[in-house]
Amino acid sequence: MNKSPFNVDQLEFHPVVLTKADKCGRDWHFQGALLGKSQDNTYDYFLYHTTSQHKYFLMVGVRIEKTTGITEAESWGMIDTDMMATFFSEYARFDIFTQCHFPAYRCIGMPLHQQEAA
Description:
Elements: E1 14-18, E2 28-39, E3 43-50, E4 59-65, E5 71-76, H1 81-87, H2 90-99, E6 105-107, E7 110-111, H3 112-117
Antiparallel strand pairs: 1-2, 2-3, 3-4, 4-5, 6-7
């Protein structure tokens, strides 16, 4: 597995199936470990770590629209917080990153460089 700041030996990977998860309506099948989840009035959000060997498919973000059940998924390299920021709401990102101790979020979701500068 590619380098990961997470201790992947301690993660529990399970088969994940996302139905019609991309813009082409394809189903996604992968081995994933749920790192965190959140919700707001519109979506349920999930972040998975995968077992992929490809550098751009290490993380999968999922959002499910509550009223329609439509599932959307995106895959990213490990620390692609810019792409994650466009996919997850601000509050969902905070919840998920603090749940899984996401790299660069050490305490109460504050990026390390801001905490150390204070």
